[in-house]
Specification:
The protein is built from nine helices and eight strands. It has about 230 residues and is an alpha/beta fold. It has a single domain, classed as Alpha-Beta Barrel (TIM Barrel), CATH 3.20.20. It has an eight-stranded parallel β-sheet with strand order 7-6-5-4-3-2-1-8. Strand 3, helix 4 and strand 4 form a beta-alpha-beta unit. Helix 1 runs parallel beside helix 8. It is globular.
Length: about 230
C-alpha cells in the first residue's frame, strides 16, 4: 500500500468524523480516531500516525509487544482493544496508555495490583456486552454499577469510560439501537460519582459503523479496514 493511500484514507475518515460530530452538535476534535492495527506491519502503522490518527489500538498482546519493539507506535498513544486474559495483564500494564477491554472484577484487581507495583495508575475502559452475546466478552449492562463500585475501591486503576462491540448487523437501525443503549448507559454512569472513575470516554464504532456511532454519541472510534484496507 502506498503512503498516499493511508494518508488519503485518514483524511476521508476525518472528514466523515467531522461531519457526523457537527451533525450531533459537537466539535470534530471531540472524537478520538484509533487506528485498529491488528496484523498490520510497522510501516503501515507509522504511516497512519504521520497522517494524523490520534492513537493506535492492538488486539493481540504478543503482536503488540513485537511491533512496539520495532518502534511501531512512536508518536501516538497505544491502546489495547482486544480480549484480555488475566495471564497477559502484567505484559501490558504500564505499556498501554489505555486498556479498552476490561471486562471483569478479576481483571480490574490484576491490573490494579500490577499498576501499584509499578507506581502508576493504569487508564482503562469497561467493556460492556451490550448485545448480550454469549460468545463475546464484556459485562452485562446491569452489572455496570457493581463493577464501577469495585473499580472505585481498587488502587492503581483509573476507569475513564466505556467500550462496546455491538452485534454485527447490515441494518443501520439495529446498530443504532445498540449505540443508543450504550449512550444511555454512558450518560447514566457519567452522572455518578466514584473514586478512580471518570466516565468521559465512550469507545464504540468501527469501519462499517463509526458514523452512526458518532451520531449516537460515541467520542472514540476504532477504525481498521477503512483506514488500512482489508486484511
Amino acid at each position: 500500500m502506498k503512503n498516499t493511500t493511508i494518508s488519503d484514507n485518514v483524511k476521508r475518515i476525518r472528514d466523515s468524523i467531522a461531519e457526523a460530530a457537527i451533525k450531533s452538535g459537537r466539535s470534530p476534535n471531540d472524537v478520538t480516531l484509533v487506528a485498529a492495527s491488528k496484523t498490520k506491519p510497522v510501516e503501515y502503522i507509522q504511516q497512519a500516525i504521520i497522517a494524523g490518527v490520534d492513537a493506535v489500538g492492538e488486539n493481540r498482546v504478543q503482536e503488540m509487544l513485537e511491533k512496539r519493539s520495532h518502534g511501531a507506535y512512536e508518536g501516538a498513544p497505544l491502546h489495547y482493544i482486544g480480549h484480555l486474559q488475566s495471564n497477559k495483564v502484567s505484559k501490558i500494564v504500564g505499556v498501554c496508555d489505555l486498556i479498552e477491554s476490561v471486562s471483569s472484577k478479576a481483571l480490574i484487581e490484576s491490573i490494579g495490583k500490577k499498576a501499584v507495583s509499578l507506581g502508576i495508575s493504569q487508564n482503562c475502559l469497561i467493556e460492556v456486552n451490550i448485545g448480550r452475546e454469549p460468545q463475546k466478552s464484556g459485562i452485562l449492562p446491569e452489572q455496570l454499577d457493581e463493577i464501577l463500585d469495585f473499580a472505585a475501591t481498587t488502587k492503581g486503576i483509573h476507569v475513564q469510560g466505556l467500550m462496546a462491540i455491538p452485534p454485527f448487523s447490515h441494518e443501520n437501525v439495529t446498530d443504532c439501537k445498540y449505540f443508543d443503549l450504550m449512550f444511555k448507559l454512558f450518560v447514566d454512569m457519567s452522572a455518578k460519582k466514584y473514586d478512580n472513575v471518570s466516565v468521559q470516554l465512550l469507545s464504540m464504532g468501527m469501519s462499517d459503523s463509526y458514523v452512526d456511532a458518532i451520531m449516537a454519541g460515541s467520542n472514540m472510534v476504532r477504525i481498521g479496514s477503512a483506514l488500512f484496507g482489508e486484511r
